[in-house]
Amino acid sequence: VQLVESGGGLVQPGGSLRLSCAVSGFTFRNYAMSWYRQAPGKGREWVATIAVTGGGTNYADSVKGRFTISRDNGKSMVYLQMNSLKPEDTAVYYCNVVVYQVTRWGQGTQVTVSS
What we know:
115 residues, mainly beta, four-stranded antiparallel sheet, 0% helix, 54% strand, globular
């Protein structure tokens, strides 16, 4: 199982970024996918989850209305569109899946929101 995040960077407050997570090593379309984040000095925080068909999504209150999770089952990709970014969104963002009862993480991608 391999998860590889990309798309992070430095953005000004109010800006947008789109994170991507390339997935391999399991049947992607059969598993819900999630994004988490970890800010400096804080624990890892759940951000969003998307169901296997893509029709069901859930978001943390802190990002609801600003972030959108999506997936492409044909490409084994999951995305996180982040709009109206705030300094408090600064964190390392991780792709997540539970496969064979084991939680899997990518290496993370840094998002920094600063003027």
